[in-house]
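FAQ: What does the model actually see?

It sees only this:
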Amino acid sequence: MRPRTTAVLLVAVTALVAAYMTVRAFNLIATGRLTGRLLGVGVLLLVAVGAVLLVGELRFGLATQRLGERLAREGGLPEVPADLPRLPSGRLTRDAADGLFAVRRAEVEAAPGNWRAWFRLGTAYGDARDTARGRTAMRRAVRLERSHR
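And it is asked to produce this:
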C-alpha cells in the first residue's frame, strides 16, 4: 500500500473512532450524574488532544513531502550509492549507514542554515535507524525553508 493511501486510511479510522468517542462522551454528560459528566468531559478532552496531534503530524508529513518533491525537482535528493552493503531486507548495514551519516553531518556543519543539508541529514538518520533525530532534523529543515521563503 502506498504511504499516502495508508495515511488517508489511518486518518479515516481515527476520525471514526473520534466520532464514536464524541457521541459516547455526550451520552455520559447527558446522564446528569457528576461522574458521568466528568468522564464525558475527560473523553472530549482526549478527542481534542488527539485531533491536535493528528493535525500536527499531517502538517509535518505534508511539509516534508513538499520539501522532498522540491529537492527531487532540483536534483538534490540524497542518493545512496548502490555498492553499499545491505541487509537481506534491503536496508543499509549499520556501518554503511553510519558512514553515510558522517557525510551528511559534515554537510550540515559546513552550511548550518541550509535546509537542503538538514533534509539530507534527516534521511541519513532514517538510514541509521534513528527516527527521533531524523524527525528533529526534518523539522529543522522545514523551519529553515519557511524562513527563507
